[in-house]
Amino acid sequence: MSSQPSAPGSPGPAGLPGPAGPAGLPEMAGPAGPVSSADPSAGLSGQLSPIDPAGELRGLANDCVHCGFCLPACPTYQLWGEEMDSPRGRIHLISQILEGATGTSAAAAHIDRCLGCMACVPACPSGVRYDRLIEAARSWAEEPPAGAAAPPLPPRSRRERAARAAIFATFPYPRRLRPLLAPLRAAQGAGLDRLLARTGLAERLSPELAAALRVAPAPARRSPAGLASGGRLPGRIPARGARRAVVGMLTGCVQQVFFPAVNVATARVLAAEGCDVVIPAGQGCCGALSLHGGRRAEAIGFARRAIVEFERAGVDAVIVNSAGCGSAMKEYKELFAGDGGWAPRAAALSGKVRDFTEFLAELGPAAVRHPLPVSAAYHDACHLGHAQQITAQPRALLRAIPGRRRAEIPDGSTCCGSAGIYNLVQPEAARALGERKAVAIEATGAQLLVSANPGCSLQISAALGARGVRMPMAHIAEVLDASLRSVPVSKLLTA
């Protein structure tokens, strides 16, 4: 398949039916296509749409000039070569719906198949805010707008709604997620997860359950030192040496349940670099999964709680060690735009949010790095590299560790298929992308894979395991922590 954009006026790569629209895009299809005919009383006549009363989304969509530069950057377009599974095609679908057309189940499927990896955003020469458009489109299925004559997108099936309800009722709540570890470990210990996968029973019962078992982490060899009772970090960890900053730390949901050692390492590194680390006990979920999944109202509720907790903490910066969470918290300003009471508070907090690597690069090193003789490849998490444009800082931090040998991943900016809950609700596409990523990582010959996002770590570990490749993984905080504490590299490779 060619990765070149379609020429203006040519048909899309999948030979989509219908007369050609701009840049070869199909005009609105009939009932069997992605959208039904537009209501002539809506949109095209200049009337305000209930799903876009201020015309903001239409303005964003009109920024797209259909150049096609997004196509080779888009993982789903790479997989299928289907115009409607590219950012350009999805923007065209969204525009049609904004102009009064009703999306069919086909349109909903094309929108759902978007990873939200944001690779198209930096690739776009026109600066189209695709992130805003796709989040709005996802909300049409999750939170149908009031006042619309017909839902912009059809409701999901009962099974899909139940699966998503279970996901969003569990993963953002560590107190609900943590009790599931015991039965998961029992199933893994008895080999039940492998039996279910081998027989296909889990897939027949629920594709989402099968996907969850596939990416579930293996049991940790030991609990990390430094946790207080109940598996929590203490509320405040003092700086070692002269205090250079007072920072808050987000502990996350999946991160604190499945990867508590990452939070411990993050706090230790920050303290070693002269930071008092404040960890608000009531912070809860930041809202990232909900926001990126189209559940805007739910995300706002989580965000309000996070804003209040970190305001009370009185910190100079809020440090986040999970790429998706950091990206969402930096969006609080836009999430609360127009809300007079919350907008200034949200903007103030967003301005304090820093990725762990971003903050350390700004702060500069104070603690001594000790050698770590290891060949390590760094994986760019999409919501760090694409959404936050943070790619140089993690590499600079790793490069400053004596003895560490660099191994770059071919096509490393392409999504691994994790993408929030994507690998649970779109398991086949996620598996294909995970396989591609595993092949690329294996080709580096690295001894260690370094990541900055818990979802990526779970997804890539499962993909490597499916190929029979055992490659240890570590968060960049764990690598820095090992260097600062002069931990033998063998500890990282057996963790």
Fold blueprint:
Elements (H helix, E strand, L loop, with lengths): L55 H7 L12 H6 L6 H12 L6 H8 L7 H4 L6 H13 L15 H11 L5 H4 L3 H10 L1 H8 L1 H5 L1 H9 L20 E2 L7 E5 L4 H5 L1 H13 L2 E4 L9 H5 L3 H18 L3 E4 L2 H8 L1 H4 L7 H10 E3 H8 L10 E5 L3 H4 L6 H8 L4 E4 L14 H4 L1 H18 L3 E4 L2 H13 L6 E3 H9 L4 H6 L1
Parallel strand pairs: 2-3, 2-4, 4-5, 6-7, 6-8, 8-9
Antiparallel strand pairs: 1-3
Helix pairs in contact: 1-3, 3-6, 14-26, 20-22, 24-25
Summarize the structure.
The protein is built from 27 helices and nine strands. It is of the alpha/beta class and 495 residues long.
Structure description:
The chain has 27 helices and nine strands. About 50% of the residues are buried. It has helices at about 55-60, 75-80, 85-100, 105-110, 120-125, 130-140, 160-170, 175, 180-190, 190-200, 200-205, 205-215, 255-260, 260-270, 290, 295-315, 325-330, 330-335, 345-350, 355-365, 380-385, 390-400, 420-425, 425-445, 455-465, 475-485, 490-495, and strands at about 235, 245-250, 275-280, 315-320, 355, 375-380, 405, 450, 475. Strands 1-3-2-4-5 form a five-stranded mixed beta sheet. Residues about 1-30 and about 40-45 have low confidence and may be disordered. The longest helix is centred in the middle third of the chain and has 18 residues, at about 295-315. β8 (about 450), α25 and β9 form a beta-alpha-beta unit. It starts with about 55 loop residues before the first helix and ends with a helix. α3 crosses α6 (about 130-140). It is α/β, with parallel strands linked by helices and about 500 residues long.
